[in-house]
Structures are given as C-alpha cells and as structure tokens.
Amino acid sequence: MEETVPLLIKIDGKTVRIRANINWSVHQLKQHLYLHSNQSVEDLKVVFAGTELSNTVLLKNCHLTHGTVVHAIVVESSIDREKRSNVTSTNFVAPTQNGIKQAQENTRRPRFYVFCKSTCNGVKPGKLRVRCQICKDEAFEISKGPNSWDDVLMAERINGWCNKANCAGGKAEFFFKCSEHINASDSNEFVALPLRLLRTNMQDVPCLACMDVSDIVLVFPCDDSHVMCLDCFSVYCRTKLDNRQFVLARDIGYTLSCPGGGETCDDRFIKETHHFAIAGKDQYERYKNFATEEFVLQNGGILCPGQGCGNGLLIENNARRVTCHRASGGCGLVFCRDCRQTFHDGQCEQTGNLHATNSDASNGYEVNSRHALRARWRDDMDSRETIGRTTKRCPGCGTPTEKNGGCNHMTCTRCNHEWCWLCVIEWNRSCQSDHWFRAD
Questions:
Q1: Which helix (H) or strand (E) holds 433?
Q2: Contacts of 142 by beta carbon, 8 Å cutoff, 6+ apart
Q3: What are phi and psi of 24, to 5 degrees?
C-alpha cells in the first residue's frame, strides 16, 4: 500500500484538502490539482516557505506532515512576469536520501528557539517563516534569504513579491512558529516570541554558574559572550527579583546584565526582555509587576500594604488617609500614608524605614571567576575546527567554498549546487526553518 500524506492546498482563493502520495513529484502534484483548478501544469507553481518548488522535487523529500499548508499559484501573465524579471528568486532544493540520513543522525543541530505562549508555555525549537507584510499571506516569494537577526526582526529589510490575487505587497515579514504547532492553520495564533540569545550548544561550553554542559544555552551580550544554562538563568532571574535588583536601562526597561563579573559585563544588558519568560510564567508575572511597582515608586507613588495587594498608587496631595480603591483594581484598604498601617488618628508608631527595599542588599547571585573564564562562547575564528573553519567543500562537486555572509544557504559557483553551510548537505526546508542565517 502506497503511503500518503494529507495536505492543505491553497489555490484560487480557496483551501483544498487532498491526500497526496509521498512518492509524487511536484509535477505530479500539479497534475492532480487540475481537478480543483482547471489549470494546466505549465500555469501553476507551488510555493512553500518562501520559495518555489521545482517540478522534479519529490514530496517525500520535503518533510511534509499531516496538515501541511502548500500554496499553488496560478502563473501571472507574461507582462506581469516581465516586471519582476530583474529579481532573482531563491530556488528550493530537496535533500538527497543521503542528505536526509546525515541530518537525522545529527540530532543536535543549530536551531532557532522561541517562547511558545500557547499550550506549550515554555522554550521550544522555533521554525522561521515568511509572509507578505501587507496581506499576511504565506504565498510570498523572497528575493534573497536573511543574513542576520536584523533582517528578520526589523521591518522592510527583504524584498519579494506576493502571489495573492489583488495584493501588490513587495516586502517580506518574517515570523516564528513553535515547532509543536508548525502545521496549525491559524498562523497568527501560534506566532512565538523569538529568543535570539538562545543557541544549541554545539561548542559544549559549560554553564557560567553550575559548569554543566547543556544542549541549549543562553549567551549573554557581553564581550566575553558568557554562557548560562536555562535552569541557572531561571535561578538568576528569581534571585534578582527577590532582591529587587533588576536595573532600569535606557530604551530597554527593567532588565539584567551578564553576571560574569568582567569589566564589560555589568553594562551589557539583555535587550529583549521577553527572555525573562524562560524563568516560568509565575516569575515572568513577578517581573512585570516589579517593573510596574518600580515605576510607581520612582514617580513618588506608594504600594498598597494590603495582604496580597501591592497595588500602585500615585497620590497628588499630602493627605495621610489613603484608600486603595477597588474600582482601580485595589483591595479597598484605607491606610496611613506615613506608617502603612490601617488608618488612625494621632501619631504613628515607629515601624522602621518604610521606604527601604532590598535594592541595597548583597548581590544574592555570585559567579566563580574561574568559571567565567571557561564559560565563554567562541566565534567561528576561535572555536574548534569542526565549528570554526571558514572554508568547506561543496557536497556536490567538492570545490572549496568560503563563507562571506550570514546566510547559511550556499550556492556553488562551479556546479550551482545549493547546500547548507552548517549541515553540509543539500539545502532543504529543515535547514531553512531551523538555521536560515547564522544566529550568532
């Protein structure tokens, strides 16, 4: 019995469910789609993950799974095609069987990582996707691959063309999906937060704190690129929250720097504060509450002393009587502004320094200086040969190839073979989703 896979084909403005034979070529898939569109093979192109699949690609080599969405586009007129003839498309190359085997054997491979806010509620491998900036349709082809995080996170960095009818979109919009929900039909629901500081620990660098070697690590943005495992990073965040030692950094908000202790560690802050979600949902809520509380205190406000409340109150006059109004989310407590006790007449009893916090407490999180020397991420020029060599041989013809950009999608100048710089196999959808560009 021939193996099949159920696919969702978006064609002519409608979604068609089909069961495709995994041994079909893209050409055979187009022939089958004639039943749904009355379009000949020559008038259709299949777009997947920002690239057009050639007719010779076999479906079994495309890693298609249950519910995968594929776009079948009716080719535009020759006049419209000529308008974009000066733009070079990125062609998708399916992996050979040997290439698939090599990729499967290399279970620990470079990946993007995200924080999934839906059912996962945690750190997961992420899949990079691209869509039209205007209509948000994924039937979008790009003119070139991204070379850096800036290309992905900043708007209008990569051009292309949208294949959706009546859409003139020419700018790519990149987004990440959790690997657990990669085939979900609603892209917006499962868009995940990219964690650009997380990397697969291909270099086996020990953690700054515990010195264990973990598969996934966070690399701080300091000059030494200190490494910390996710468990220790969670403890680091929790300890700093307990001592109210998050720092207000300009244009960032309340954040943390590298705890390595070097000269440049103290002022190298984590810019994307959603990294603190790694510590868990409860701690992340504490972090957001802390930021709100600090804003209130820094602007002359006070926090309600009611048990389990802590509502921030900005008071415009010098009245001693303060009410934490329920209408504004408070607990209804009426208390004395001076001593934070239930409101009373007469002088307050001595209760110590009411404005003191733990911000002057001891650091609460110290790192061994010898550990800091070992827990450093090395760039390509300084790392071991298997990671750091700047010249690799094309898997198609063996020609030495030097990498001169951030994109891992290589094209051999001798045989035009398209391959992945990291996996050294033919360029495929997994490489594009997992490490399209150099993440460091």
A1: helix 429-435
A2: 50, 51, 90, 130, 158, 159, 160, 172
A3: -65, 150
Segment (H or E) for 369 = helix 369-374
Is residue 177 within 8 A of residue 126, CB to CB? The reply is yes
For residue 347, what is the enclosing H or E element?
none
Residue 233 backbone zone (phi > 0: left; psi -120 to 50: alpha; other: beta):
alpha
Element containing residue 398 per DSSP (H, E)? none
Token pair 């959790």 in the structure block, residue: 178
The continuous run of DSSP H or E covering 12 comes out as none
Count the neighbouring beta carbons within 10 Å of the beta carbon of residue 90: 20
In angstroms, the CA 208 to CA 218 distance is 10
348 counts as catalytic: no
- pTM score: 0.70
Burial 121-142 (b: 16+ CB within 10 A, else e): ebbbbbbbbbbbbebbbbbbbb
122-173 pLDDT tens trace: 999 998 988 899 998 888 888 888 988 999 999 889 999 888 888 889 999 9
| Nearest residue to 16 via CA among 66, 60, 71 | 71
Catalytic residue among 407, 420, 423, 431: 407
